[in-house]
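Hi P.,

Sorry for the delay on this. The queue was packed all week, but I finally got your sequence through. Input first:
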Amino acid sequence: MSDRKKVLVAFVDVCGSTRLYEQLGDGEARQRVSAVLDRVRSTAEDLGGRVVKEIGDESMLAFDARHVVPALGEGFASLQGVRGLTCRAGLHFGEVVEEEGDLFGDVVNTAARIAALAGPTQMLLSAEAAAGVSERARLRALPALVARGKRRMPPLFEWLSHHEADFTVALTPEDLDFTRASGPNHLLLRWSGGELMLRPGDGDVLAGRDRDNPLCFPSRRVSRRHLRIESRGDAWLVHDQSTNGTLVKMHGAAPLLLCRDQQRLQGSGTLVLAPGGEERTDSVIHYRLVAGTRKAAE
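Then the structure:
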């Protein structure tokens, strides 16, 4: 029999477990991952929640109320470094369907996608989940993100530790909504080989090692067709289609590594093709959104 209820859903994922199994072998790796998942279970139960299920190196948690978010954030911080491992987490709040102890619905799917967007040691939460946080300085609003399999994601926030909150200005989603200018944004690109102004409707632009690409980068670490930039409505998206990934560094937001995924660009920043080791200036694209009513020279 199914039941509908509102809950806070959290996914906590142990980072780097695949490599750990390769390096240490199944037995030792499983012991380390299990030690972290045991701590996750204890944290959830101490806060009145429960572990809905464990899937490999990931735990799905449920709480009856979102006021536990701050305490959950502190508990999440305490997980970092357990047995030399780190975790990431994603939280969302809303109505779910409960059947035989398991949870289903869009809220569950969204929470899982939020966790997938987080980097190591990051806890990301939706605006619905963030409503349970009274200390707003502990939240940093993120630019609009695109998740695989989801046409629309809710506004997202990053949970900040006390140390981070002391040095970070927390912005609202409105502060980061750079697309509210008086017209569709143009996209200005600068790289070692030149400069290009893109306008909505110009069509997709490719960057990579292939000489036929409008943006050509000769490094062997860069794929022939490394990334694609497209205009979609009033948004600009970057699609990574490479072997070594693309690091998206938007001003005011945490860096995001794309691996065969896409991201909506906001404000200004850089796209680092094939990151790793010392950042090569000849494999970097600097971008800036320019309001449609402004001249490219600005």
